[in-house]
Design goal:
About 30% of the residues lie in helices and about 40% in strands. It is an alpha+beta fold.
Protein backbone atom coordinates (compact mmCIF):
# COMPACT_ATOMS: atom_id res chain seq x y z
CA UNK A 1 0.00 0.00 0.00
CA UNK A 2 1.41 3.40 -1.00
CA UNK A 3 1.72 6.18 1.57
CA UNK A 4 -0.41 8.44 -0.62
CA UNK A 5 -3.47 6.19 -0.62
CA UNK A 6 -5.85 4.48 1.77
CA UNK A 7 -8.24 1.59 1.33
CA UNK A 8 -11.94 2.48 1.24
CA UNK A 9 -14.47 -0.22 2.01
CA UNK A 10 -18.22 0.42 1.96
CA UNK A 11 -20.47 -2.29 3.34
CA UNK A 12 -24.29 -2.34 3.29
CA UNK A 13 -26.58 -5.00 4.75
CA UNK A 14 -26.75 -6.52 1.25
CA UNK A 15 -23.21 -6.31 -0.10
CA UNK A 16 -19.70 -4.97 -0.04
CA UNK A 17 -20.44 -2.00 -2.29
CA UNK A 18 -16.90 -0.61 -2.62
CA UNK A 19 -13.40 -1.89 -2.02
CA UNK A 20 -10.77 0.33 -3.61
CA UNK A 21 -7.67 2.43 -2.98
CA UNK A 22 -8.35 6.16 -2.71
CA UNK A 23 -6.37 9.34 -2.12
CA UNK A 24 -9.11 10.94 0.00
CA UNK A 25 -12.65 10.41 1.32
CA UNK A 26 -15.29 12.90 2.46
CA UNK A 27 -18.35 11.66 4.37
CA UNK A 28 -21.35 13.11 6.27
CA UNK A 29 -21.27 12.53 10.01
CA UNK A 30 -24.07 13.50 12.36
CA UNK A 31 -21.74 16.32 13.53
CA UNK A 32 -21.01 17.54 9.99
CA UNK A 33 -18.93 16.58 7.00
CA UNK A 34 -15.42 15.23 7.57
CA UNK A 35 -12.53 14.31 5.33
CA UNK A 36 -9.90 11.61 5.54
CA UNK A 37 -6.48 11.69 3.93
CA UNK A 38 -3.67 9.13 4.20
CA UNK A 39 -2.16 9.22 7.68
CA UNK A 40 -5.44 10.31 9.35
CA UNK A 41 -5.72 9.59 13.05
CA UNK A 42 -8.06 6.78 14.14
CA UNK A 43 -11.70 7.85 14.20
CA UNK A 44 -15.13 6.37 14.80
CA UNK A 45 -18.08 8.46 13.61
CA UNK A 46 -21.84 8.07 13.26
CA UNK A 47 -22.85 8.79 9.67
CA UNK A 48 -25.93 10.70 8.60
CA UNK A 49 -27.75 10.82 5.28
CA UNK A 50 -25.55 12.65 2.81
CA UNK A 51 -23.01 12.54 0.05
CA UNK A 52 -19.74 10.60 0.06
CA UNK A 53 -16.97 11.70 -2.27
CA UNK A 54 -13.68 9.98 -2.92
CA UNK A 55 -10.76 10.28 -5.29
CA UNK A 56 -9.72 7.04 -6.94
CA UNK A 57 -7.28 6.69 -9.83
CA UNK A 58 -7.54 10.42 -10.58
CA UNK A 59 -11.34 10.34 -10.77
CA UNK A 60 -13.83 11.90 -8.35
CA UNK A 61 -16.59 9.46 -7.37
CA UNK A 62 -19.76 10.33 -5.49
CA UNK A 63 -22.57 8.38 -3.88
CA UNK A 64 -25.68 8.93 -1.80
CA UNK A 65 -25.29 7.31 1.60
CA UNK A 66 -27.75 6.48 4.34
CA UNK A 67 -26.98 6.39 8.05
CA UNK A 68 -24.37 4.15 9.57
CA UNK A 69 -20.86 4.30 10.96
CA UNK A 70 -17.38 5.16 9.75
CA UNK A 71 -14.21 3.68 11.15
CA UNK A 72 -10.87 5.18 10.20
CA UNK A 73 -7.80 3.18 11.04
CA UNK A 74 -4.25 2.86 9.80
CA UNK A 75 -4.48 2.99 6.03
CA UNK A 76 -8.20 2.21 5.85
CA UNK A 77 -11.65 3.78 5.95
CA UNK A 78 -14.64 1.49 6.47
CA UNK A 79 -18.19 2.75 6.03
CA UNK A 80 -20.97 0.51 7.37
CA UNK A 81 -24.17 2.04 5.99
CA UNK A 82 -27.85 1.28 5.52
CA UNK A 83 -27.94 2.70 1.98
CA UNK A 84 -25.39 3.31 -0.76
CA UNK A 85 -26.12 4.37 -4.33
CA UNK A 86 -23.36 5.59 -6.68
CA UNK A 87 -24.21 8.85 -8.44
CA UNK A 88 -24.07 7.26 -11.89
CA UNK A 89 -26.77 4.77 -10.83
CA UNK A 90 -29.28 7.50 -9.99
CA UNK A 91 -31.89 8.67 -12.51
CA UNK A 92 -32.94 12.29 -12.04
CA UNK A 93 -36.62 11.83 -12.96
CA UNK A 94 -36.99 8.75 -10.76
CA UNK A 95 -35.40 10.50 -7.79
CA UNK A 96 -37.62 13.55 -8.26
CA UNK A 97 -40.69 11.30 -8.31
CA UNK A 98 -39.51 9.46 -5.20
CA UNK A 99 -39.01 12.76 -3.37
CA UNK A 100 -42.45 14.03 -4.41
CA UNK A 101 -44.07 10.81 -3.12
CA UNK A 102 -42.16 11.01 0.15
CA UNK A 103 -43.03 14.69 0.67
CA UNK A 104 -46.69 13.93 -0.01
CA UNK A 105 -46.63 11.11 2.57
CA UNK A 106 -45.11 13.46 5.17
CA UNK A 107 -47.87 16.02 4.48
CA UNK A 108 -50.58 13.34 4.69
CA UNK A 109 -49.28 12.31 8.12
CA UNK A 110 -49.10 15.86 9.45
CA UNK A 111 -50.33 15.92 13.04
CA UNK A 112 -49.09 12.35 13.63
CA UNK A 113 -45.46 13.28 14.30
CA UNK A 114 -45.03 10.79 17.15
CA UNK A 115 -45.96 7.75 15.03
CA UNK A 116 -43.49 5.31 13.50
CA UNK A 117 -45.15 5.80 10.11
CA UNK A 118 -44.50 9.56 10.18
CA UNK A 119 -40.88 9.05 11.27
CA UNK A 120 -40.35 6.58 8.42
CA UNK A 121 -41.90 9.04 5.96
CA UNK A 122 -39.42 11.69 7.14
CA UNK A 123 -36.50 9.26 6.69
CA UNK A 124 -37.74 8.40 3.20
CA UNK A 125 -37.95 12.10 2.33
CA UNK A 126 -34.43 12.75 3.63
CA UNK A 127 -33.07 9.80 1.68
CA UNK A 128 -34.75 10.95 -1.53
CA UNK A 129 -33.48 14.49 -0.95
CA UNK A 130 -29.91 13.25 -0.61
CA UNK A 131 -30.23 11.21 -3.80
CA UNK A 132 -31.52 14.29 -5.62
CA UNK A 133 -28.58 16.38 -4.40
CA UNK A 134 -26.10 13.72 -5.49
CA UNK A 135 -27.58 13.17 -8.96
CA UNK A 136 -27.82 16.92 -9.60
CA UNK A 137 -24.17 17.49 -8.59
CA UNK A 138 -23.07 14.49 -10.66
CA UNK A 139 -24.77 15.90 -13.77
CA UNK A 140 -22.79 19.14 -13.35
CA UNK A 141 -19.43 17.36 -13.35
Amino acid sequence: MADDSIKLEVVTPLEEAVSTMVSEVTAPSVEGEFGVLPGHRPLLAALDFGRVRFESKGKTCEAAVGPGYAEVGPGQVTLLVENWIPAESLALDEVRDELARADLKVKELSGQESTAEYKQALRDARWAGVQLEVVQRHRQI
